[in-house]
């Protein structure tokens, strides 16, 4: 890789270049201004000399006589040498020279138009003549009220480079100290920047920034960083997706982009910082929050979010946990029955063993055929079969209403599993606490333009005074064993129902009766 110039040398080089450029421009401007002022002075001086020569009586007389003895040339050269002028030219009324620094030009007409001066006017300016560019002044020669000739006096201008070189010593005296101060200041600035950037060069900082951005966007977890004022300083794409943050959330306060609730309370540090379970939309998130310290000072916090929502879709829409629980329950139930049958066979009671086999097969076959005949949606049938198996393992009878019928396109599979699955799980938990007659009734019907789901259990019902809180995120009347999270199932049911334009309600009717109503007109077709 091509070696790169360190930052200190880059700043030094730029600073020196800026100082030199500024000094050159300043010197050129100063010389130009001084040259212009010098031209004005030379013009006025030339005019004064020209007027003095024009008033010379001896030159007037010689001009009237045709200057037979060359008096005008002698007088003009004498005046030129005494005044330091570059030339003193005297002409007659026709513009014919009677004097010139170059005697070969005497008797020849002047190059410029003498008309304005011979008309009786003075003139000053800068023009190019036979000797070069000069600041000149011209005056008419009067005699008896008439113009008999003119006088032109000029001072040659030195070239601009010559003027710059002439001013170079004075400019160098000011430039060298300025350059030295600039070099020292640049070096100190580079050293300070080096300390603030931990010795990293700009291209190294840019590389670290690119790597950080790529790493943040590549991780599966959502990450949000906030400063001490609760303003978002970083949010990767996964965090925006999980929390539903707007694209312009960076730089805004958390309270401006997150709705009031447990999520906002968590980000504000009002909940526990380790493995807090939160609900964001239809997602269950596990979040952690850590303080950010720089040089021992807390400057903000960083929060990470993991999506722990169950994988609710497989080929037929069944959740992995539901399928696992159903298989485990069925295996456990059949193992018990097989042990019983084996015992009857060993005791020589083959007839009773055959009767038990027939009874077991018939019960399961009857339930399966009954659900398949009435269920237009295979996901609903599979879900009820799975829940029936898990309920049976816990000694709870799942009673499916005879009016339970639902078409395939009435509701999205994942929404059906969320709604009915959570309600049945809660109902089975409640019914399992009943001392006798443990059952859960389920009914799913389509009537009056809506899908109506009813789940009724034989449990103790909803405790008095908490019926308005059971749909809140994190609220639960049960303690979760081990690491099992509680207080999110009913909150998810409520969110899905509201998103579909429906509602969920609960009443105590010898146990809790939950009813969900979803308008068919907003159900998404497959």
Can you give a write-up of this model?
- With 526 residues, the protein is α+β, with helices and mostly antiparallel strands.
- It folds into 3 domains: 7-161, Beta-Lactamase; 220-307, Beta-Lactamase (2-Layer Sandwich); 320-522, Heat Shock Protein 90 (2-Layer Sandwich).
- Helices cover 46% and strands 20% of the residues.
- The strands form 3 sheets. Strands 6-5-9-8-7 form a 5-stranded antiparallel beta sheet.
- A hairpin with a 3-residue loop joins strand 13 (503-508) and strand 14 (512-519).
- Helix 10 (320-346) runs antiparallel to helix 11.
In short:
With 526 residues, the chain is α+β, with helices and mostly antiparallel strands. Helices cover 46% and strands 20% of the residues.
Show the helix and strand layout.
Layout: H1 7-54, H2 57-64, H3 71-83, E1 87-92, H4 115-118, E2 123-128, E3 133-143, E4 146-156, H5 160-196, H6 202-218, E5 222-227, E6 232-235, H7 237-243, H8 254-257, H9 262-267, E7 276-280, E8 283-294, E9 297-307, H10 320-346, H11 350-374, H12 378-393, E10 397-400, H13 413-431, E11 439-447, E12 450-457, H14 489-499, E13 503-508, E14 512-519
Parallel strand pairs: 10-11
Antiparallel strand pairs: 1-4, 2-3, 3-4, 5-6, 5-9, 7-8, 8-9, 11-12, 12-14, 13-14
Helix pairs in contact: 1-5, 10-11, 10-12, 11-12, 12-13, 13-14
Task: Give the C-level CATH assignment of the largest domain.
Answer: Alpha Beta
Strand proportion, as a percent range, falls in 15-25%
Low-confidence stretches: 310-320, 480-484, 522-526
| Portion in helices | 40-55%
**Total domains:** 3
Which radius of gyration do the C-alpha atoms yield? 52 Å
What's the architecture of the largest domain in CATH terms? Answer: 2-Layer Sandwich
Q: How many E-type strands?
A: 14
* Structure class: alpha+beta
Given the C-alpha coordinates, what overall shape results?
Answer: rod-shaped
N-to-C order of helices and strands:
HHHEHEEEHHEEHHHEEEHHHEHEEHEE
Biggest sheet architecture: 5 strands, antiparallel
- The largest beta-sheet arranges its strands as 6-5-9-8-7
Using the coordinates shown, work out and report the CATH topology of the largest domain.
Heat Shock Protein 90
- Enumerate how many helices there are, as a single number: 14
CA distance, first residue to last residue: 57 Å
CATH superfamily heading of the largest domain = Histidine kinase-like ATPase, C-terminal domain
Mean pLDDT: 77
């Amino acid at each position: 890789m091509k070696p790169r110039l360190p930052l200190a040398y880059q700043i030094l080089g730029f600073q020196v270049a800026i100082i030199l450029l500024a000094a050159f421009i300043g010197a050129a401007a100063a010389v130009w201004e001084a040259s212009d002022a010098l031209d004005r002075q030379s013009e006025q001086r030339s005019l004064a000399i020209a007027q003095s020569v024009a008033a010379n009586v001896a030159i007037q007389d010689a001009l009237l006589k045709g200057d037979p003895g060359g008096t005008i040339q002698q007088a003009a050269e004498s005046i030129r040498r005494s005044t330091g002028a570059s030339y003193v030219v005297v002409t007659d009324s026709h513009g014919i020279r009677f004097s010139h620094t170059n005697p070969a030009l005497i008797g020849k007409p002047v190059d410029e138009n003498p008309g304005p001066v011979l008309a009786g006017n003075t003139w000053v300016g800068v023009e190019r003549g036979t000797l070069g560019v000069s600041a000149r002044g011209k005056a008419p020669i009067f005699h008896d009220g008439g113009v008999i000739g003119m006088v032109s006096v000029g001072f040659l201008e030195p070239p601009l480079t010559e003027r710059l070189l002439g001013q170079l010593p004075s400019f160098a005296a000011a430039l060298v100290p300025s350059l030295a101060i600039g070099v020292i200041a640049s070096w100190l600035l580079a050293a300070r920047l080096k300390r603030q950037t931990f010795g990293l060069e700009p291209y190294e900082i840019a590389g670290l920034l690119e790597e950080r951005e790529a790493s943040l966007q590549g991780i599966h977890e959502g990450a949000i960083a906030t400063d001490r004022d609760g303003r978002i300083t970083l949010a990767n794409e996964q965090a925006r997706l999980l929390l539903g943050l707007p694209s312009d959330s960076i730089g805004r306060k958390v309270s401006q982009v997150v709705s009031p609730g447990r999520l906002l309370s968590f980000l504000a540090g009002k909940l526990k910082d380790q493995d807090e379970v939160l609900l964001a939309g239809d997602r269950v998130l596990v979040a952690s929050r850590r303080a950010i310290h720089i040089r021992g000072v807390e400057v903000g916090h960083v929060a990470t979010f993991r999506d722990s929502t169950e994988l609710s879709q497989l080929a037929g829409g069944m959740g992995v946990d539901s399928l696992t629980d159903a298989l485990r329950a069925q295996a456990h139930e059949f193992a018990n029955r097989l042990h019983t049958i084996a015992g009857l066979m060993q005791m020589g009671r083959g007839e009773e063993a055959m009767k038990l086999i027939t009874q077991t097969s018939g019960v399961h076959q009857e339930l399966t055929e009954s659900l398949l005949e009435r269920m237009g949606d295979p996901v609903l049938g599979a879900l009820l079969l799975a829940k029936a198996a898990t309920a049976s393992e816990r000694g709870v009878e799942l009673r499916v209403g005879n009016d339970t019928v639902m078409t395939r396109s009435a509701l999205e599979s994942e929404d059906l599993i969320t709604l009915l699955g959570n309600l049945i799980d809660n109902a089975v938990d409640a019914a399992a606490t009943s001392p006798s007659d443990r059952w859960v009734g389920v009914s799913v019907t389509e009537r009056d333009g809506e899908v109506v789901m009813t789940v009724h259990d034989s449990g103790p019902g909803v405790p008095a005074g908490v019926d308005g809180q059971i749909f809140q995120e994190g609220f639960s009347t049960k303690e979760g064993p081990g690491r099992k999270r509680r207080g999110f199932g009913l909150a998810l049911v409520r969110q899905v129902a509201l998103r579909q334009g429906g509602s969920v309600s609960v009443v105590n009717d010898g146990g809790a009766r939950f009813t969900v109503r979803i308008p068919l007109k907003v159900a998404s077709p497959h």
